[in-house]
């Protein structure tokens, strides 16, 4: 195949194949617990992290003549997103604020600080790539890190599936059954933070949340139990991400928006079939 003859496209396809299913799995947890807005707020918080990382590089070079390694910014952004995730979980447990209030503060505050840092102090010229991503610019190091986070995410879900399922059904019931809900929440937000930080190159700050929320939402349209929800969401995440990379190549379009377009197409398809089956079942009941 022509598309596989390019090294950067092989990296893009592998990155999409790793990120799509991983984001979809995390999306099941966030959407089931009414925290779909969390990944969106975190991706926007990364704008401030990116600006802060660039500012540190600039000051270190200007005042101390220090140059950081090429991957410093990616590593800083990864740690920044983990830190923001922990702060969110901490304040959610300790303060009396509702989760949507906290998320709104993170969302608006981070965008404001990030844009201020990038435009006033750093004068960053590539804000468009930060907002919409560029998966074709991913390095093998990025893909390797994404692979490690994917393995950790799948392992976490596999070993904690009963506790997670119980928590998604009813948090108070999970606590009464001995589930350490707070510990589970910290691990969950840390994983989301890691995945969002590493997926930013795919879709950018504006669109990365779509890869987490949409495949899980369309999976719920088809699913008949929790196992089927996991399987269908994984397939949706894979098809949307890899299909978006392939389509963007042949259409000569931006990759991030094309991936989101594929995810939305799969969601609309699920809605259409669900309504068709519903009408068919109603007709069968009336005729019986």
TrEMBL record:
Membrane topology per the record?
Multi-pass membrane protein
Q: Which UniProt keywords apply?
A: Cell membrane, Ion transport, Membrane, Transmembrane, Transmembrane helix, Transport, Zinc, Zinc transport
* Pfam families found in the cross-reference section: ABC-3
Chain segments annotated as transmembrane: 12-30, 42-60, 72-91, 103-122, 143-166, 186-217, 229-251, 257-277
Q: Which organism is it from?
A: Methylacidiphilum kamchatkense Kam1
Q: Which GO terms describe its biological process?
A: response to zinc ion; transmembrane transport; zinc ion transport
**What name does UniProt use for this protein?**
High-affinity zinc uptake system membrane protein ZnuB
Its biological function? Answer: Involved in the high-affinity zinc uptake transport system.
InterPro entries attached here?
ABC_BtuC-like, ABC_TroCD
Localized where?
Cell membrane
A single Gene Ontology CC annotation of this entry is: ATP-binding cassette (ABC) transporter complex
Q: Which PANTHER family match?
A: ABC-TRANSPORTER METAL-BINDING PROTEIN, HIGH-AFFINITY ZINC UPTAKE SYSTEM MEMBRANE PROTEIN ZNUB
* Family assignment from sequence similarity: Belongs to the ABC-3 integral membrane protein family.
